[in-house]
Automatic annotation (TrEMBL):
Belongs to the bacterial diacylglycerol kinase family. Pfam families: DAGK_prokar. It is found in: Cell inner membrane. It comes from the Bacteria. It is a multi-pass membrane protein. Its main location: membrane. Catalyzes the ATP-dependent phosphorylation of sn-l,2-diacylglycerol (DAG) to phosphatidic acid. Involved in the recycling of diacylglycerol produced as a by-product during membrane-derived oligosaccharide (MDO) biosynthesis. The chain crosses the membrane at residues 36-53, 59-76, 97-116. One of its GO terms (molecular function) is kinase activity. InterPro entries: DAGK, DAGK_prok, DAGK_sf. It catalyses: a 1,2-diacyl-sn-glycerol + ATP = a 1,2-diacyl-sn-glycero-3-phosphate + ADP + H(+). This is Diacylglycerol kinase.
Length: 118
């Protein structure tokens, strides 16, 4: 185990880093802003729909999954861009695969919402 802060201090520091990450994503990532706003709006709608608690939970969870995958994709893109500005096949592949992950998450959310509402 590497030395470092433990207990409550570690949890507080980790929370601070997470909030910094959310702030950075909000400032630098248009897709994150769009997906987060859509997630908030659709989550409110989910509470107004005549669905069960379980269905509402699955609907909102599918939206949050899109946001999570977008954050991971943005992290991948930031690291790739940090390594080099030059085009590289592996860098391009990493970015494309991250984008594909977001696409699959969005498709899943659409499937969940359509399955419940239709």
């Amino acid at each position: 185990m590497k030395p470092g802060k433990t207990g409550i201090r570690r949890i507080l520091d980790a929370t601070g880093y997470s909030l910094q990450g959310l702030k950075a994503a909000w400032i630098h990532e248009a897709a994150f802003r769009q997906e987060l706003i859509l997630t908030l709006a659709l989550s409110i709608c989910a509470f107004l729909l005549p669905v069960s608690i379980f269905e509402r939970t699955i609907m909102i969870s599918s939206l949050l999954l899109v946001v999570i995958v977008e954050l991971l994709n943005s992290a991948i893109e930031a690291v790739v861009d940090r390594v080099s500005d030059d085009w590289n096949e592996l860098s391009g592949r990493a970015k494309d695969i991250g984008s594909a992950a977001v696409f699959v998450a969005i498709a899943l959310a659409l499937f969940v919402w359509a399955s419940i509402l239709l």
